[in-house]
């Protein structure tokens, strides 16, 4: 099943073309990564696919409905977005914040039900924040805030997940723990996930497919095995990248 499709997309920002005549199809059960250097356009591409900004040309469809025509509430029932920088937040506790993930599913005057609270508590448990439920969010560390944002998306229960640098602020244990949780969830609910990443080893471990946003040539997309190779990665980052075969699988290091 197609979850998110883009046809003949042209995206530019500040006079720079990120992509043109770009087609994309995210299918049920797929985990995609976007790789590219700073300023390559990863965030811009994600924001455009989410319908937060208009493309210069082309069409984006979420479950076969034009995203530009979807009401924000309908879109939020189907698509969750993890913003990279999300500083401006109202004073609230961790539990109040995670419950906001239920809002697209509640009626205008409807309060959260006991089931909503249960979902929120389960999500906090999954991200290791159960003991922080009544803490004001301004007292959380960077990594704890990131885990709270992921918990909020878990209770939102979207089918399509767009994540801008989900590994930001997370220690190695939480990177693996949370990306394992999210990618397993995608397979179970037959949704799809597209995330920007700076860590090639996380891309290798968690992604099925990739989009490479080069600085000097059109984007490329395909399977991880075809794209995570020294020559393409060195071109992508304009820096020599080496791929090493180890007991733990392939690892990538900057030369
Ligand atoms: N609001 C904006 N107005 C004008 N130009 C912008 C704006 N946001 C980003 N840009 C520019 O658009 C280009 C793409 O930025 P974008 O944030 O999409 O890159 P990125 O690949 O996500 O980068 P990073 O890895 O540094 O987060 C950059 O050259 C950036 O300077």
From TrEMBL:
The keyword Zinc does not apply. InterPro entries: AAA+_ATPase, ABC_transporter-like_ATP-bd, ABC_transporter-like_CS, P-loop_NTPase. It comes from the Bacteria. SMART domains: AAA. One of its GO terms (molecular function) is ATP binding. Keywords: ATP-binding, Nucleotide-binding, Transport. Pfam families: ABC_tran. Residues 4-240 form the ABC transporter domain. SUPFAM superfamilies: P-loop containing nucleoside triphosphate hydrolases. Belongs to the ABC transporter superfamily. This is ABC transporter domain-containing protein.
